[in-house]
């Protein structure tokens, strides 16, 4: 049985290598958290021509920069990761920027990609696109059942327009554009800047800095009741590449781990892993964000064989260790 499974996995790996070996790939946001993992996995799969546009050279909110990038990369496949992202605080402080910059990057890039004859466009959406009170687990068919959670609605809606555009261009032009919905990512190399980070790196940093400063408390936004689902960044990169290789359809597809956890329980794990011994103060004057998040991940497994591999405990341990060694 194990030998048969090994043969199947070997065949799939050969197919992956065959897919990428002669294709020119452009990974926008390829220097970022998820992007670095995708670029590394592309190289492991034998991709020889991977172009990563840097923001200093290519401001993708500007149409001329997009065209310059396409002329330079001449890609067969675009994996569009570039986005302006952040936690609740950053979304609340910059809603107009989050809407405009993400909308312009995605809309113009997909249109120009179609015009230039790009063979495949992989659009990366966000879990923030789901309605505020989506039943858990979130199913892709629930995407249009209501308005997103208010603190990140401009960002979520801007990203969701890539789904509308991908479906419209597929319908009218036969353009192979797909749309993926990754849940919150975490792992080594995450953004630990408290002004723009998401919940896991922010809590890890707060606990470690409080411990080292000898503080007896950490202050955390909200009341700890909301739930979230998290996907280890290497798993997310694998999911994106499997979808790129194997999926060609109009349906949006969730990428997640299938494990839901409350912020309170998450913090308890981080406190234990960091060794912080003080007390937690919940600042209930600050927003909780969306009440619950947890994904139905069956479509990804059915359509392109993706299933998350990293256990949450081990993923958190690796993230804490990376931060201690690399800050």
Task: Explain the layout of strands and helices.
Blueprint (H helix, E strand, L loop, with lengths): L1 H19 L3 E5 L4 H12 L4 E3 L11 H11 L3 E4 L7 H6 L1 H21 L4 E5 L28 H21 L3 E6 L1 E3 L12 H15 L3 E5 L5 E6 H14 L6 E3 L4 E3 H12 L4 E5 L14 H7 L7 H15 L1
Parallel strand pairs: 1-2, 1-3, 3-4, 4-5, 5-9, 6-8, 7-11
Antiparallel strand pairs: 8-10
Q: What does this protein look like?
A:
With 327 residues, the chain is of the alpha/beta class. The chain has one domain: NAD(P)-binding Rossmann-like Domain (Rossmann fold, 3-Layer(aba) Sandwich), CATH 3.40.50.720. It is 47% helix and 15% strand. The chain has helices at residues 2-20, 33-44, 63-73, 88-93, 95-115, 153-173, 199-213, 233-246, 263-274, 298-304, 312-326, and strands spanning 24-28, 49-51, 77-80, 120-124, 177-182, 184-186, 217-221, 227-232, 253-255, 260-262, 279-283. The strands form three sheets. A six-stranded parallel beta sheet has the order 2-1-3-4-5-9, sandwiched between helices. Strand 4, helix 6 and strand 5 (177-182) form a beta-alpha-beta unit. Helix 9 packs across helix 11 (312-326). The protein is globular, with a radius of gyration of 20 Å. It starts with a helix and ends with a helix. The relative contact order is 0.13. The mean pLDDT is 94.
């Amino acid at each position: 049985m194990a030998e048969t499974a090994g043969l199947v996995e070997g065949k799939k790996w050969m197919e992956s290598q065959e897919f990428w070996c002669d294709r020119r790939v452009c990974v926008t946001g390829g220097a970022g958290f998820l992007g670095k993992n995708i670029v590394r996995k592309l190289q492991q799969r034998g991709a020889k021509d991977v172009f990563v546009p840097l923001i200093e050279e290519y401001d993708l909110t500007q149409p001329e920069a997009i065209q310059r990038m396409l002329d330079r990369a001449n890609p067969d496949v675009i994996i569009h990761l570039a986005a302006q992202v952040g936690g609740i605080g950053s979304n609340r402080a910059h809603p107009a920027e989050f809407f405009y910059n993400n909308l312009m990057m995605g809309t113009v890039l997909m249109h120009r990609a179609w015009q230039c004859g790009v063979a495949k466009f992989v659009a990366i959406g966000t879990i923030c696109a789901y309605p505020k009170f989506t039943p858990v687990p979130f199913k892709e068919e629930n995407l249009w059942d209501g308005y997103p959670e208010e603190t990140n609605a401009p960002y979520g809606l801007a990203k969701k327009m890539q789904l509308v555009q991908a479906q419209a261009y597929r319908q009218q032009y036969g353009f192979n554009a797909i749309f993926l919905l990754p849940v919150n990512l975490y792992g080594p190399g995450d953004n630990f800047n408290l002004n723009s980070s998401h919940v896991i790196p922010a809590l890890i940093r707060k606990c470690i800095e409080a411990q080292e400063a000898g503080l007896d408390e950490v202050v955390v936004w909200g009341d700890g009741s909301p739930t979230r689902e998290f996907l280890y960044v290497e798993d997310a990169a694998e999911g994106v590449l499997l979808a790129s290789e194997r999926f060609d359809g109009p349906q949006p597809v969730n990428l997640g781990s299938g494990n839901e956890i409350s912020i309170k329980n998450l913090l308890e794990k981080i406190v234990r892993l960091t060794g912080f011994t003080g007390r937690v103060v919940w600042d209930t004057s600050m927003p909780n964000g969306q009440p619950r998040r947890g994904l139905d991940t069956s479509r990804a497994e059915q359509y392109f064989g993706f299933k998350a591999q990293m256990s949450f405990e081990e993923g958190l341990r690796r993230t804490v260790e990376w931060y201690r060694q690399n800050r």
